[in-house]
Amino acid sequence: MQERQRVYIQEVSVRDGFQIEAKFVPTEQKIELINALSRTGLAKIEVTSFTSPKAIPNLADAEAVMSQIDRMPGVVYAALVPNVRGCERALACNVDEINLFMSASRTHNLANIRMTPEQSLEQFQKVADFTGDKAMLNASVSTAFGCPFEGEVPADRVMDLIQRYVDMGIQGVSLCDTTGVANPTQVRELCERVRKRWPSLLLTLHFHDTRAMGLPNVMAALSAGVDRFDASLGGLGGCPYAPGASGNVCTEDMVHMLEAMGYDTGVALEPLLDIARLLPEIVGHEVPGQVMKAGPYTRRYPVPESVKGM
Amino acid sequence: MQERQRVYIQEVSVRDGFQIEAKFVPTEQKIELINALSRTGLAKIEVTSFTSPKAIPNLADAEAVMSQIDRMPGVVYAALVPNVRGCERALACNVDEINLFMSASRTHNLANIRMTPEQSLEQFQKVADFTGDKAMLNASVSTAFGCPFEGEVPADRVMDLIQRYVDMGIQGVSLCDTTGVANPTQVRELCERVRKRWPSLLLTLHFHDTRAMGLPNVMAALSAGVDRFDASLGGLGGCPYAPGASGNVCTEDMVHMLEAMGYDTGVALEPLLDIARLLPEIVGHEVPGQVMKAGPYTRRYPVPESVKGM
Question: Which of A33, A74, B1, B92 is surrounded by the most beta carbons within 10 Å?
Answer without folding.
Answer: A33
